Amino acid sequence: MSPVVTPFDASLAVDPARLLNQCRWLLSQQVGLAVFGTNSEANSLAVSEKTALLDALLEGGIEPAWLLPGTGCCALPDTVALTRHAVSRGCAGVLMLPPFYYKGVSDDGLFASFSEVIQRVGDARLKIVLYHIPPVSGVGLSLELIERLLAAYPGTIAGIKDSGGAWRHTSAMLERGWDGFRIYAGSEAFLLKTMRAGGAGCISATANINPAAIARLRQNYRDTDAEARQAELNAVREVIMRYPMIPALKAVIAEGNGDPEWLRVRPPLVSLDEAQAKALSAELRAVGFSIARD
Amino acid sequence: MSPVVTPFDASLAVDPARLLNQCRWLLSQQVGLAVFGTNSEANSLAVSEKTALLDALLEGGIEPAWLLPGTGCCALPDTVALTRHAVSRGCAGVLMLPPFYYKGVSDDGLFASFSEVIQRVGDARLKIVLYHIPPVSGVGLSLELIERLLAAYPGTIAGIKDSGGAWRHTSAMLERGWDGFRIYAGSEAFLLKTMRAGGAGCISATANINPAAIARLRQNYRDTDAEARQAELNAVREVIMRYPMIPALKAVIAEGNGDPEWLRVRPPLVSLDEAQAKALSAELRAVGFSIARD
Asked: pTM of this prediction?
């Protein structure tokens, strides 16, 4: 899956038509839609912007079964509102950050947070993919917390996106073998390892620009050339990682689509300048990556 | 000033009547109202809850000149909405966090954030007290950023609350002597030092429970017994700091008011348990602090 980047118009308002276009292209590349993730600038969007965008995607013909919108906010009422909306629209599930303003909070407090959301939404269709990304959120999800949640809400706690960057944590979860719990690497750098250990795939920012190759490795991870395919993914990812991630993804999409509107980010992020965008483009071509879209 | 703690009812909804009561009491103790600060659990409240609470305080007779509501959110539209609302109601100013989800953002990006808010609010009455609290927000405000903002918006950038915990940073700002820029310590532990160096006072969580003594030291910091008064404030603060801050403040207010409703916090925070509340109370009495309110 891809945390789909969010396009903005000249007034920095969200641009539903371009988002729909990106979503359709990702689906055509066999990649699902984790809209409103970290790399979607989701936390730079108001609740009402996210509900309106989700509705625009559905009205544009995107099947809700392909959608895993991010719904975790700092404030309980916001998380409940977004989650309820996603469930009511039939989305496959939601990707849920813990409340992330207060740091050093206890597992008891985090358990209570997820619990309150689940109880307030009160819908058996709710499927939550937990979102572990302590380098950004500052609030991690321990194995003990996940086990408590699974025990209390076995039909609802459906999986986790592990963007902690530590294979040890992903691996420890995979070893637990929690029944029906889907473990997604937070980046395709860990895709092959994750698949070999029984994981579900990855939800990765770079899937915005390199979706087909990532989806192919997930599908064919048992092939003899899987290591070589992983190395190719890594080469592209390593280029992107030398730039600020979200502006870099948008620069590649802008070039690939011949559409500079895609360059915009909301503050506090800053777009790549022209020199950076050119250098990125040259570095990607040097590793054999094709920027132009069909 | 006090970042006024926010009371919740049994359904975890905000409780305007109890907040109004706490605000009136703080004003009677000569302490101003930085509602919706970190210790107000402001980031656990939805935008609509904050606008409604502010209106309830004004309808309850609180003068807007005593109010410095926190308005900084992750998402630009939310910060604009809250700031515009506070300005329209005549509040003395606003306390503004930078957008705090994305970490490692540049001064250019933070400048653009504050700039967008100021331009979108577009009201000469707007006075911003910047909110520097990197231990919680994860996003600090550099001296260079503050200078850029002051140069661009001299009538609007009115001061800073420095909750970084590093006297070096507060001191560096005080030494710059920026004209008309009000520097508030983020805790009364630095109150005397701040006042002696030309600062404006402090905005401190413990002012929720120890307001009169803090206000008195600010007023009388030139007195010969000021060091002794600072030591008394520190003794109370050091007790509180041995507990989770917000639950501890609420436990003291609950005991002081004989009103256990005050104990509630929103997840991810957790209330003190009975044993903790008793121990806190005993420790406070041991340093000569009187919990009961007049």
From this structure: 0.97
